[in-house]
């Protein structure tokens, strides 16, 4: 609890081109949560270097992501929006938690296995301890709730285990966080292969709607979206392409899939694809415009970056000092 509100923590990486999957599955939900909770939303740049990054690109994208948070509707005066690398407590707590995490636990992480298969030439220790840094992110802020996709569930479970293990030895130091897995928009599928999740690293640009796509591109990609030959707009397993389009349309218009089915009963796929495309363009257009305005206003964004990093550091250090004392580090002499 913080100022009488429960605490929410989440983070995202600024690597790859963000897609509407990232927006609908994460950021849009964050904006909702920010109304009811004290929120910390971090750009996890330290996690990003577990795979090789081009420095200039990482720096540019990190700033773009932070401004996107604001453009999408998060209020930087109320929610804490910041870069992980600006708050040293993350790396410091991660070190301590490394000493409370077993090799066997980390070896079981499916994301580690996947990523080491993909980056065989660079299976570094950071990739291995990635989930420990993530646990530090969360535990530093005594988060009650952590909104993440299903793909992060295993990491969150490990975070809970580490917190409970630490608490069992030293008393109630950490809040044990709950995962929060949003139902709507959590899984936007590829437009070209609707059995697979829309991914920012997909090689086929037609498979994903990027948050930077303009209206023409959005409309064209939806027109080309893979569907089926049933010819009926129905929300079912057998029509994964149509189901995905219904999911997108229903989240954006605040309707249930059944209401969408009813709205488009008797209409063709072409009409429906146009309607979905228009809904997406109507939401992304204003966000893109606001993001551009913010990127052009360096002084304003710099102020937010500085103030929010300070705010985050203040809370984080409170937890860190407590942990350092518990494990037996010498007291600081003033
Ligand atoms: N690992 C998360 C992802 O790839 C990002 C992340 C880092 C995160 N630290 C976090 C998410 C803490 C939630 C809480 O999606």
Structure explained in plain terms:
The protein is globular and about 75 Å long. It has helices at 20-33, 45-48, 55-71, 89-98, 103-107, 110-118, 125-140, 153-170, 215-223, 240-253, 257-263, 269-296, 298-327, and strands at 7-12, 38-43, 80-83, 145-147, 178-180. It is mainly alpha-helical. It contains 13 helices and five strands. The chain has two domains: 7-181 and 297-327, 3-Layer(aba) Sandwich (Rossmann fold), CATH 3.40.50; 205-292, Tyrosyl-Transfer RNA Synthetase, CATH 1.10.240. The strands form two sheets. A three-stranded parallel β-sheet has the order 1-2-3. A two-stranded parallel sheet has the order 4-5. Helix 4 packs across helix 7, helix 9 packs antiparallel against helix 12 and helix 10 (240-253) crosses helix 11. 54% of the residues lie in helices and 7% in strands. The structure holds tryptophan (TRP).
Please describe the topology of this protein.
Elements lengths: L6 E6 L7 H14 L4 E6 L1 H4 L6 H17 L8 E4 L5 H10 L4 H5 L2 H9 L6 H16 L4 E3 L5 H18 L7 E3 L34 H9 L16 H14 L3 H7 L5 H28 L1 H30 L7
Parallel strand pairs: 1-2, 2-3, 4-5
Helix pairs in contact: 3-12, 4-7, 4-13, 7-8, 9-12, 10-11, 10-12
Brief write-up:
The chain has helices spanning 20-33, 45-48, 55-71, 89-98, 103-107, 110-118, 125-140, 153-170, 215-223, 240-253, 257-263, 269-296, 298-327, and strands at 7-12, 38-43, 80-83, 145-147, 178-180. It starts with 6 loop residues before the first strand and ends in a 7-residue tail after the last helix. The protein has 13 helices and five strands.
């Amino acid at each position: 609890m913080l100022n009488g509100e429960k605490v929410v923590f989440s983070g995202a990486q600024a690597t790859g081109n963000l897609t509407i999957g990232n927006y609908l599955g994460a950021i849009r939900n964050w904006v909702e949560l920010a109304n009811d909770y004290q929120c910390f939303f971090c750009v996890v740049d330290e996690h990003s270097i577990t795979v090789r990054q081009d420095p200039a690109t990482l720096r540019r994208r990190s700033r773009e992501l932070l401004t996107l948070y604001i453009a999408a509707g998060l209020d930087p005066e109320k929610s804490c929006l910041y870069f992980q690398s600006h708050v040293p407590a993350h790396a410091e707590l991660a070190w301590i938690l490394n000493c409370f995490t077993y090799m066997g636990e980390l070896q079981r992480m499916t994301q580690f296995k996947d990523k080491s298969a993909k980056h065989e030439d660079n299976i570094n220790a950071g990739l291995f301890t990635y989930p420990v840094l993530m646990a530090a992110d969360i535990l530093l802020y005594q988060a009650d709730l952590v909104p993440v996709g299903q793909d992060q569930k295993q990491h969150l479970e490990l975070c809970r285990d580490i917190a409970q293990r630490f608490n069992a030895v030293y008393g109630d130091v950490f809040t044990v966080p709950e995962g929060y897995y949003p139902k709507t928009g959590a899984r936007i599928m590829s437009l070209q292969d609707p059995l697979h999740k829309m991914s920012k690293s997909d090689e086929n640009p037609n498979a994903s709607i990027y948050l930077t796509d303009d209206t023409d591109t959005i409309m064209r990609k939806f027109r080309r979206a893979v569907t089926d030959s049933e010819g009926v707009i129905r929300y079912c397993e057998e029509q994964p392409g149509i189901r995905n389009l219904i999911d997108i349309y229903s989240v954006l218009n605040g309707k249930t899939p059944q209401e969408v089915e009813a709205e488009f009963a008797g209409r063709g796929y072409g009409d429906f694809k146009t309607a979905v495309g228009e809904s997406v363009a109507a939401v992304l257009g204003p966000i893109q415009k606001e993001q551009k305005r913010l990127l052009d206003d360096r002084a304003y964004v710099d102020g937010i970056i500085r103030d929010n990093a300070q705010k985050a550091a203040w809370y984080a250090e409170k937890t860190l000092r407590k942990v350092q004392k518990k494990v037996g580090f010498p007291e600081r002499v003033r």
